[in-house]
Amino acid sequence: MSKNLVNLNINPCKMCMPMGTANAFYGIQKCMNILHGSQGCSTYIRRHMATHYNEPVDIASSSLTEEGTVYGGEKNLIIGLENLIKLYQPEVIGVSTTCLAETIGEDIEYIIKNFYAAHPDETVKIIPVKSAGYGGTQFEGFTRALRAIVSHVEMDTAKHNKINIISSMISPADTRYLKDVLDQFGLSYILLPDLSENLDGVHQSSYYRLPMHGTPISEIQKMAGARATIELSDTIKPDESPGVYLYENYGVPYKRLNLPMGLRDTDALMELLSELSKKAIPEKIVKERGRYLDGMVDSHKYNALGRIAIFGEPDFVVSAVRLCCENGVMPVIAATGSACPQLKEKIKAELSKLADVLFVDNYVILNDVDFETIEAEALRLGANLMLGNSDGRRIEEKHGIPLIRCAFPIHDRIGGQRVRTLGYEGSQVLLDQITNTILKTVEGGFRETLYNTYYNEGPKSKYGLEPKTEAQMKVLEYKKTTDPLTPQAQTIEEKTANHPCYSCGASQKNARMHLPIAPKCNIQCNYCVRKFDCPNESRPGVTTDILSPEAAFEKYKLVKEKVPNLTVVGIAGPGDALANFEQTRKALTLIHEHDPNVTFCVSTNGLMLPYYAKELAKLGVSHVTVTVNAVDPAIGAKIYKHVDFMGNRYHGEAAASILLANQLSGIKLLIDEGVIVKINTVTLMGINDTHIEEVVKTVKDMGCFISNVMPLIPVKGSAFEGLKIATNREINAIRDKCGVHLKQMYHCKQCRADAIGKLDSDISLDFRENEARSESKTIVSPKGLRFAITSKGGMLVDQHFGQASELYIYDYLDDEVQFKEKRVIGKYCSGEEECDEKEDKIGTILKALNDCDGTITMRIGDLPTKRLESKGIKVFTTYDRIEDAVKTAAQEMLKSELRTAGNF
């Protein structure tokens, strides 16, 4: 049985529920938390809390082992409670279940009841919380613990003048701010929980194991008699809301607000407190608001450049999105690891409004998400900063997207307990951080961005700056080749910037030359026919002549003289460069001695790479292209008919396995030698099209520089002759997916093995000496023929039919070719659409060709071919001079007519 498996959650954007319960219980005075589960759970939580809050954290464990797992953990929990009471003398104990306890079905309410029965004089309040790690996140654990506290405490329903303040997960510093604001309004309040001291205490000479601060249990018992409840969380589920519980059971009216971050949400809290206290907003707070408004004005002219990715707990994400939107910073990602379906409805309108103003087309709201998805979306949407906890640091380190740390947990910085985000002052601190990060990003790299965008690389992909792995950086920092014959050699980075296949910008100005010196091949691909003498085809693996190394050297000197912008010499077949290594070595050596500064490039299937990788580097080869069509031997077996290796011929998965192993080990050797590696992959619909992204991921992790996903060019007589061809849209969709992982080549022209010139202007015809000419008798007929030709400049048949905006019309009569006119037509393929779907456009083109007998083009799709031939217009594909191509096509048509008439 074969089945593809994928990880459902990679680098989760959340922590487990017991983490949230532990945080909540630390806001209760003289409260200890015990986890009913294995010891590792409490250790994990202590570590996270201690490094974030920079305070000692004690969390007990019932220490379930194999015996307790099988026979039940009641005994462990009761012993744990007894020891906890003996050592700490707490007034409150929170008992939180873990994955293990919930999985085996532990009834902690029943166990606690039995504990009290066995200890009738015990007065400690024990509060159970069902908090399986897989049942939610720390956010749900936090809110569920608060709900458990108010639902298990014996309430005093006597009415009083205090108000209940129930907070979401906020820092101790923000808790102190909240208390200060309440004091300024002169309000009496009960705060649940109060983390202001226990997790951010003053320096003391003695350590108190029991949290001595926080909200006393006696105050919590009075919450049922409060005159109102303010719940600073608008995303808590009603069945986990303490405010809802107090209202439904004791009639305490409640109001739910967003966390007071930003102008509007802080205004809402201040107005409500003013209403409840029947006092005007204090002057100190009014001035804070004024300073925040002034700060908003100061920063607004920079903020439109920000494309921020926000992640964390639902309450934090909602309020942070609103703060960013009111300050003109566009959140392109709003993500939470919690399952919070209401997140979208709470922020969709905010994002849509700002996106319209800033002309932002794409943004995402992600629910129950992991960091792998956040990373992919950040690259796709061009995020230039992130806001959230320090678990986003891996994205920052990997892709250079700055991270502003302001939520739990923060492990790689100190001061997480002192982070301020609430109120006008906290909002100002956060806004300054955001704006300054935008300025640092823009001001610190704008020259490099301009250079790369408009001079060096041409427009970048839509993913923004291309990510570089450690191995790629090592290659780019490799400044000089070690070959003593090239003391003035360019740096690797300069060669890459000037290589037409590795740099889109260079393809517009620099030429390359392919030397057809390698006829032999050691593998048989099912999309290829081992025939290279094809003077009138434009695709990889074809050439007019096979040159000796000496002839190739002489031709290089001739071409270099006439093409001064020639910067790259490559060996790309027509077979495999390494299957003809002696010829390859000789040709490279001759040219290297004559021109030590030329860039050498070799294309190979990779079978012999482990044996020649180091030799290639010594010869001065700086760039190697390896064709890798699959990293799964089962898929590779469908692509390769056989592999010839070490005197044996292999078939099926054995052949594919040998090839793959040699490809990967050879690529590793090349990268270790400082060689830049490009990966070519042919798209074979129904075979490897859904597997290509896995290929790119694999080679990206090895340190390859760029990937080139190519469409199949069907070859007559090959096993894949009738295979469906991927459309432009399908190819670009695959490239877009792969571009998240590795830079993509969008400008490939799938060149011949003897190509010369710039990528979009092959001038190899000008240097052919021995073109194949038919010696058969020319057929002369009084009948004239008319042809429509696609050509970029009117000299060669060198343009794809779908890319032509005008056609050259030629007449043929009595072996004479005469140009008649140019006809302007509308392109039916823009390069980004599925050309085969443009029925209306091809119909218009057919009308323009109604007087033509044939059309001659370099390439053409299946649908236009069928449509043209259904109208009696013969289709010829070739790469040749126009006059020669017309004569060849006309002779073929005339011969066909004679055969049909029985005269030939």
Structural notes for this entry:
With about 900 residues, the protein is of the alpha/beta class. The protein folds into four domains: about 15-200 and about 210-255, Nitrogenase molybdenum iron protein domain (Rossmann fold, 3-Layer(aba) Sandwich); about 285-445, Nitrogenase molybdenum iron protein domain (Rossmann fold, 3-Layer(aba) Sandwich), CATH 3.40.50; about 500-760, TIM Barrel; about 775-900, Dinitrogenase iron-molybdenum cofactor biosynthesis domain (Nucleotidyltransferase, domain 5). Helices cover about 40% and strands about 15% of the residues. The chain is built from 30 helices and 29 strands. An eight-stranded mixed beta sheet has the order 22-21-18-17-16-14-23-24. The chain has a five-stranded parallel beta sheet with strand order 11-10-9-12-13, sandwiched between helices. Strands 27-26-25-28-29 form a five-stranded mixed beta sheet, with helices on both faces. α14 (about 345-360) links the parallel β10 (about 330-335) and β11 (about 365). The longest helix is centred in the middle third of the chain and has 34 residues, at about 425-455. It starts with 16 loop residues before the first helix and ends with a helix.
Biggest beta sheet attributes: 8 strands, mixed
Mean pLDDT: 85
Instruction: Sum up the overall morphology in one term.
Output: elongated
CATH superfamily of the largest domain: Aldolase class I
CATH architecture of the largest domain: Alpha-Beta Barrel
The top-level CATH class of the largest domain is Alpha Beta
Query: What structural class do the secondary elements suggest?
Result: alpha/beta
Task: Name the beta content range.
Answer: 15-25%
In DSSP terms, counting alpha (H) and pi (I) runs of 4 or more, how many helices? 30
Distance between the termini: 58 Å
Radius of gyration: 36 Å
In total, the number of domains comes to 4
Strands ordered across the widest β-sheet: 22-21-18-17-16-14-23-24
> According to CATH, what is the topology of the largest domain?
TIM Barrel
Helix share bin: 40-55%
Query: How many beta-strand elements?
Result: 29
Q: Which stretches of 5+ consecutive residues score pLDDT under 50?
A: 1-6, 457-488, 532-539, 770-776
